[in-house]
Amino acid sequence: MHDVASLAGVSQATVSLVLNDVDGGRFTEETRAKVERAVRSLGYRPNAHARVLREGVAGMIGFIGDSVATAPFSGMIIAGAQERAWEAGMLVLTVDTSGDKALEAASIEAMLSYSVAGVVYAGMYNRYLEVPEVLAGSRAVVLNSHDASGSLPSVAPDEERGGYTATKKLLDAGHRRIGLINIETLDSGLPAAVGRYEGYVRALTEAGLGMDADIIRFGLGSEEHGYEHAAGLISSAHPPTALFCANDRTALGAYQAARDRGLRIPEDLSIVGFDNQELLAPLLRPGLTTLELPFKAMGRRAVEILLEDAGEPGRVELFECPLVERGSVKELKETE
């Protein structure tokens, strides 16, 4: 910093203010430019270890997930976290544990020993997570899941509102017999399965329609279960005119079942999915109307909570899942 100050013709204090992006009218833009030219000329880099000694915190956010490298949505959730961290002049240190608890424990200890500014503990699908006890006393946030112990703040998708939005889309299109193919049983307690079901029921109730158990099925979120349950529903004596499939893979199976039985989408059967998988939903013919999980926004918010130290223990922030409309829903006429 002494060399930078000497070359720029300013004090070391001014160099520090410029490098830490502190203004408040203390220097001119011309002075900033001189310091930045000197930094580039000398190849100066701030010493990260010195920053830890001085401030007690590193310029890094820890990010731990059980399948960061392999989950289909991990890119967006990490991108959101990295984007917000970078805006604060920080990097994200990411570890994929692949479910290995020993690796997870070692990674958390390493991150804490480096004095990271906080730890994002991410689930690659929404569930109740058993968070390691060592994080309970640290600055940490659970992302895309819920902390089962209630000791940490969590950021998760609003599954119930998403199920409501999906069903309401079909109701607004004139459908009154809407089947549901869920991705798990309600007994599983899986937030996505329970929330999407409750949203479906709420939308039907608001429309003055009773829930018909004959057109509700519980699969495991796979293409095979989507095919099996859709085939049974559309072959029944009183088939639904529309299906809410609680994920896009289930919807893919429903597409195939309809095609094999000579039904056209959306002319004979309307379908709404959930997830907006970019390698699936827009590539179906017709494109699938579906709900998008807000991964990037959630990733940003998790880091923001750490930076602002704004997380209340046990608080869950729910993010809306926006509707992505394509061509799989038909507006029914009154005669239909």
Describe this structure in words.
With 336 residues, the chain is an alpha/beta fold. 40% of the residues lie in helices and 15% in strands. It is built from eleven helices and 14 strands. A six-stranded parallel sheet has the order 2-1-3-5-7-13, with helices on both faces. Strands 9-8-10-11 form a four-stranded parallel sheet, with helices on both faces. It is elongated and about 85 Å long. The model has no long low-confidence stretch (mean pLDDT 89).
Quick description:
The chain has 336 residues and is an alpha/beta fold. It has helices spanning 2-8, 12-19, 29-42, 48-55, 74-87, 101-113, 159-172, 191-206, 223-234, 248-260, 295-308, and strands spanning 60-65, 91-96, 119-122, 128-129, 140-143, 146-147, 154-157, 178-182, 216-218, 242-245, 270-272, 290-291, 316-319, 323-324. 40% of the residues lie in helices and 15% in strands.
- Full CATH superfamily name of the largest domain: Response regulator
What's the oligomerization state?
A: single chain
Tell me the total number of β-strands. Answer: 14
CATH class of the largest domain: Alpha Beta
Largest sheet geometry: 6 strands, parallel
Which topology of the largest domain does CATH recognise? Rossmann fold
Low-confidence stretches: none
* Tally of discrete structural domains: 3
Distance between the termini: 76 Å
- Main-sheet strand order equals 2-1-3-5-7-13
Rg over alpha carbons = 25 Å
Order of helices and strands: HHHHEHEHEEEEEHEHEHEHEEHEE
